[in-house]
Specification:
Elements lengths: L17 H11 L3 E4 L8 H8 L5 E6 L4 H9 L4 E4 L4 H12 L4 E2 L1 H9 L14 H11 L4 H8 L3 H15 L4 H10 L6
Parallel strand pairs: 1-2, 2-3, 3-4
Helix pairs in contact: 1-2, 2-3, 6-8, 6-9, 7-8
Length: 190
C-alpha cells in the first residue's frame, strides 16, 4: 500500500518465499525487489546474492537489524537495508535510491555500523559550500532527503543536487560513504 500510493512507483508482483521472489524477479525484471531477511526457503541475503549483477536491485526490509545481517546483505549486493519499524518515507526513499543506483540503510544502523569502525582521521582539502556542509552533517546522522529538505526549507530535488555535488567533490559513491567521509575528516563528530 505504501509503495502503490506513490505516483512514480508500482508494485508489479508479490512472492511468498525467497525462491519465488528470485524466479519472479528474473521473469518480470522489476527495478527493485524488497526481501525480508527471514523468508521460507531462501532468505533475503540469498535473494540479494542470486540477483546481484542482474540489474535488479534488492532492498532488504526486516525487523532484524543485526550487524552481521546488514554486512552480509550489503556484501552480497543489496542496495539497501531498512528496518520495518522505520517510517514509510524511508522505505519509499530506499526504493527510489535503489532505482537511482544509490544505497540507503536505516539511519540507526548506519550510525551504529560507522561508530563500530575505526575511521582514519584525515585532513580534507575538499571545499564545500555552507549549504553542502549542512546537508553533509544531516546525511552523517542518518537524515533522509525529505527530512533534510523540510529542516533546511529546500525542495527534495535541491537536496539531491547538493548530495550529488558532495559525491563529486569527495569521490564518494553513496550516502553511507558521505557519512564515513564526514566522520573521517572530522567535519562531523560521531
Amino acid at each position: 500500500m505504501i509503495l502503490d500510493a506513490q505516483p512514480d512507483l508500482t508494485v508489479v508482483a508479490e512472492a511468498a518465499d525467497g525462491r519465488s521472489a528470485i524466479d519472479t524477479a528474473l521473469a518480470i525484471r522489476p527495478d527493485v525487489v524488497l526481501a525480508d531477511i527471514r523468508m521460507p526457503g531462501i532468505d533475503g541475503i540469498e535473494v540479494a546474492r542470486a540477483l546481484d549483477g542482474s540489474g535488479i536491485h534488492v532492498v532488504v526490509v526486516t525487523t532484524f537489524g543485526l550487524d552481521e545481517y546488514v554486512q552480509a546483505a550489503l556484501r552480497h549486493g543489496a542496495a539497501g537495508f531498512i528496518l520495518k519499524r522505520s517510517a514509510p518515507a524511508l522505505l519509499i526513499e530506499a526504493v527510489r535510491a535503489a532505482i537511482n543506483g544509490d544505497m540507503l540503510i536505516s539511519p540507526e544502523l548506519t550510525v551504529r555500523l560507522l561508530r563500530g569502525r575505526e575511521l582514519p582521521r584525515e585532513q580534507s582539502s575538499v571545499v564545500l559550500t555552507e549549504r553542502e556542509d549542512q546537508v553533509v552533517a544531516m546525511v552523517a546522522v542518518g537524515r533522509t532527503n525529505a527530512e533534510i529538505a523540510a529542516e533546511l526549507f529546500l525542495s527534495p530535488g535541491t537536496v539531491k543536487n547538493h548530495i550529488a555535488s558532495v559525491q563529486q567533490k569527495t569521490g564518494t559513491r553513496n550516502r553511507v560513504a558521505i557519512a564515513a567521509w564526514a566522520w573521517a575528516t572530522g567535519r562531523v563528530k560521531p
